[in-house]
């Protein structure tokens, strides 16, 4: 009987986590839709910032998946804000975004191909924020974070697209400028 109640408790907990995740994704999507309209743009920005600030550890992954799930079909304001939100997440949740850094940086590098310069500028800004918030702890993990930030950017420098190369160079400069004493051996 006791084992049965424990199983029910676990199942209810799993359903609850899924429901919380679904509700968060729904709120994020509603706020993202507000970004697409000039009249509701600022409201959407404020809602997304508030959501990002108040996230708990189990809500980081669903939030990240929502903001990474943008494509070129969406308006540039939505694409720009999704990139900016990655920096906002790192400001409020430095310790919790570590597992998502590779996906976030890959998304930013992908956005360097965006036809809108506002989105590409947001990529450069966000890479600087990520570098300043995630690589300035003064410990050995800083080198790993630094490498995670610059490796995809270095790879983008080799693309045959001037916009991507320029954006990647600006991102690289921003990461180096905003990282606290990056290892000389890594810089070489």
Automatic annotation (TrEMBL):
Gene Ontology cellular-component terms listed: microtubule
Listed InterPro entries: ARM-like, ARM-type_fold, TORTIFOLIA1/SINE1-2, TORTIFOLIA1/SINE1-2_N
Domain TORTIFOLIA1/SINE1-2 N-terminal per the UniProt entry, residue ranges: 22-188
Pfam hit, one: TOR1L1_N
Superkingdom: Eukaryota
Molecular functions per Gene Ontology: microtubule binding
Protein name per Swiss-Prot or TrEMBL: TORTIFOLIA1/SINE1-2 N-terminal domain-containing protein
Species whose genome carries this gene: Citrus clementina
